[in-house]
Amino acid sequence: MTKNLLPLFLLIFLVIIWGSAFSAIKIILTAVPPLWIMFSRIALGSTVLLLWFFLKGRAIPLSKEFWVWSFIIGFLGFTLPFSVIAWGQQYIPSSLTAILMGINPILTLILSYFLIKDEKITSSKILGIIFGFLGLILLISLNELETININPRFLIGQFAVLLGTSSYALATVFAKKVSHIPSVDRAVGSLICASIMGLLIALVFEPLPNLFLIDTKIILLLLFLGILPTGIATVVWFKIVDLKGPIFLSMVNYLMPIWALILGINLLNESINFAIISGLVFIFSGIWLIQKSKD
Fold it and tell me: How far is CA 92 from CA 82, 101, 159, 173, 235, in A?
């Protein structure tokens, strides 16, 4: 029983932490450009994990295999998606972003079929993903999508988000392929590599942040972003992949809008309608079907 509940608790933890990160990023953007936020959170996350690593007296693996996979997962799981999704969100509504990122489980299912031999594609998983995606559409309520401002970069913004979520999916599948490496080791290695790549990209494509705009609140939010949604969440990400596989992890994309809904109801006095209730039923049914397929 505990073995089955642990992945669910870890998934809910990721939903809360990653879901809260969007609000933090929105505030930080008032003082720090997107690419420097990307670098800062990854660098802070890797620093925290490195400190924990050394306090435990553990040595970082030096094998070629470890660092090759760390580079691949670091780029696909952090550097690329953190950059292009943030850029794309400037030109499309957040509700459309959520729908585009909801394609992640579908991509993960397809990639798992071709790249992971022991990841069986069952009818329960397929039905679960379909239910989850329908639930996402209902939860966001297409009739309540934010006003779409068509501009020359509207299609490019959509492509950027799709590229980012595709990158996440591929990184998650690759993370399963190297599950023989401990999750903390993979987290440290991938974040170190992502930090180096992130710094180079930020230096090339964006000016340095104006330090006079960075106050105590911005610093605290950056620390939160680096420690929880990046550092600790990365270890949890790998752990869920090890326990339940990449398809189960991908359902986080369907749960994050629920967390946003909970915050909206409690903080903004938003109301629940039939579409939202139907969406919740579809999403939880989808997660149950995918969970059931692994038991």
Answer: 16, 13, 10, 28, 31
